[in-house]
Design brief:
With 108 residues, the protein is an all-alpha fold. The chain is 67% helix and 0% strand.
Length: 108
């Protein structure tokens, strides 16, 4: 009985820098293949539409704040100003959550 050498799969041949982990790895790989101007315009349009839809949902039925944050997350993939706004928003949300937890603890 001769054993055949195992053939490594495509993922094991990738270097750590090439291997992307996370939920949106396939989307990121597809976006990286696009020319930079096309990617920037696409991200700007999609993110902008999400932000505008979220703003409309603030007065209409729907999860407005969640959609605005999703739009900012999309925009933050290409624009530094959106990344700064998203980081500040995350910090403010964490501070508010911590403050709420402290208030609940005091009541108990």
């Amino acid at each position: 009985m001769s054993e055949t050498p195992s053939v490594p799969d495509a993922q094991s041949e990738q270097t750590p820098d090439e291997h992307e982990s996370g939920r949106f790895a396939a989307v990121n790989r597809t976006l990286d293949r696009l020319p930079h101007p096309v990617r920037v315009v696409g991200v700007a349009l999609f993110g902008g539409v999400l932000v505008l839809a979220g703003l409309a949902m603030l007065v209409l039925p729907g999860p407005g704040i969640v959609v605005i944050l999703a739009g900012l997350a999309v925009l933050a993939s290409e624009f530094v100003w959106a990344r700064r706004i998203l980081d500040r928003t995350k910090a403010a949300a964490k501070a508010g959550l911590d403050k709420g937890k402290a208030a609940v603890k005091r009541k108990s």
